[in-house]
TrEMBL record:
Principal location: membrane
Compartments in which it is found: Cell membrane
Signal peptide positions on this chain: none
Keywords of the record: Cell membrane, Membrane, Transmembrane, Transmembrane helix, Transport
Keyword Endoplasmic reticulum found: no
Source organism per UniProt: Paenibacillus lautus (Bacillus lautus)
Source taxon at top rank: Bacteria
The protein, known as: Bcr/CflA family efflux transporter
Lineage: Bacteria, Bacillati, Bacillota, Bacilli, Bacillales
GO CC term, one of those recorded: plasma membrane
GO molecular function: xenobiotic transmembrane transporter activity
Family of this protein: Belongs to the major facilitator superfamily. Bcr/CmlA family.
Domain Major facilitator superfamily (MFS) profile: 12-398
Length: 409
């Protein structure tokens, strides 16, 4: 079957980016309200922070369920069901009678939001191929990365006019808007004849085939490991910038936003060069930049270097993420059209699973030491290169050529 590129890629990207942004909005928008929630329920900060953990757990595990369901029943039905569940869980969070109910509802909200992440990427694989997919994913990455930049500020703005519950009512309203988009503006992209059988054995078989494919797992691991470095950055830099360098909360927000823009710049760099430079060459360039920049971060940490040196090094690392993200998705998904939902689920869940490992590690030496952060960030670049050499290049040597995902380029 021949697929045609979407005639209006910007509008289509905006729709899919909105679904992808549901995850960051779910996680980040209520962060400023955590103290209020603790007071409201008369509980500890740790108990309220557990609601953040459960939402991340829901986002990670939910993708492993929603992805295969979209391969079995098409993209629209699971997405529509999840958006309705998202609306109900968001309203439930706003009116939760206890902290225990709130934590449980946050998990359900995370599971529902995961459908937007995983199914939007599967739809991209349904619609695009090769260089066109790389360009579209770069565009999608650029738009999607705006969400983490604005969601905490938007949450604070909503709270300034009302209580913490209004944040979740706003998320519920966002769910209503996405439900309307699903019903009226999003066509089914997976034909019935291309869907996989709806059975548990098929579910297991598809995941087993993905985990056994060296090329796919190579790109998935490189992507996941480096994004675990991003989670380490998110967890570590608030303390490093403010405690060690004496940066004000306002300046920290500016530095954080600039590093978010670095990811956007990297994705646009890919979009600009896609079709002129091969994806594999751009991918290797991204790995090299990640290695050099993370090594620079570690050096700055050990040498107690200047804030400017730390910022520039982290900025370049974020830029490399913007390069590697779109390309690793394209090369991993190219040969997975029949199970694009499951493949997208593995790519997304690995990011959250590995991020859950790196985030606590950056604080093991206390709030006034940046050494664990430098070591973790550098380790992610080393491990990603190891995954590339062993699984991707090693797979090419075993098969005597390029992996199947690059065969059409």
């Amino acid at each position: 079957m021949k697929y045609k590129a979407q005639p209006r890629p910007l509008g289509f990207a905006l729709i899919l980016a909105t679904f992808s942004a549901l995850g960051p909005f779910t996680v980040d928008m209520y962060l400023a309200s955590l103290p209020q929630i603790a007071v409201f329920f008369g509980t500890s900060a740790a108990a309220v922070q557990a609601s953040l953990t459960t939402s991340l757990l829901g986002l990670g595990l939910g993708q492993l369920i929603m992805g295969p369901l979209s391969d079995m029943y098409g993209r629209r039905p699971p997405l529509l069901t999840s958006m309705i569940l998202y609306i109900l869980s968001s309203i439930g969070c706003a009116f939760a009678p206890s902290i225990e109910w709130f934590i449980c509802l946050r998990f359900i909200q995370g599971v529902a939001a995961s459908a937007g992440l995983v199914i939007s990427r599967a739809i991209v694989r349904d619609r695009f191929r090769g260089v066109e997919m790389t360009k579209f994913i770069a565009l999608l990455t650029m738009i999607s990365n705006v969400a983490p930049l604005i969601s905490p500020t938007l949450g604070s703005a909503v709270m300034s006019y009302s209580s913490w519950g209004s944040v979740f009512l706003f998320l519920g309203a966002l769910g209503i808007a996405l439900t309307a988009i699903t019903l009226g503006g999003l066509k089914e992209s997976l034909p019935v004849q291309q869907r996989v059988p709806s059975s548990f054995s098929t579910f297991i078989k598809n995941y087993n085939s993905l985990f056994r494919e060296r090329s796919f797992m190579g790109y998935a691991l490189v992507n996941g490991i480096l994004f675990a470095g991003v989670f380490a950055y998110v967890a570590g830099t608030p303390f490093i910038y403010q405690n060690l360098y004496g940066v004000s909360p306002q300046m920290f927000s500016i530095l954080f936003a600039l590093n978010g823009l670095a990811i956007i710049a990297g994705s646009q760099f890919v979009k600009l060069l896609a079709g002129r430079v091969t994806e594999s060459r751009l991918f290797r360039a991204g790995l090299i930049i990640a290695f050099i920049s993370s090594a620079a971060v570690l050096f700055v940490v050990l040498a107690h270097g200047a804030l400017s040196a730390m910022f520039i090094s982290i900025f370049l690392f974020a830029f490399s993420i913007g390069i590697i993200g779109p390309i690793s998705f394209t090369l991993a998904m190219e040969s997975q059209g029949h199970i694009a939902g499951s493949a997208s689920a593995v790519l997304g869940s690995l990011q959250f699973a590995l991020g859950a490992v790196t985030s606590p590690l950056v604080g093991i030496a206390g709030e006034n030491s940046a050494i664990p952060f430098g070591v973790v960030l550098f380790s992610t670049s080393v491990l990603s290169i190891a995954a590339y050499l062993i699984l991707i290049q090693g797979g090419q040597r075993l098969t005597g050529g390029k992996p199947s995902s690059e065969s059409s380029m």
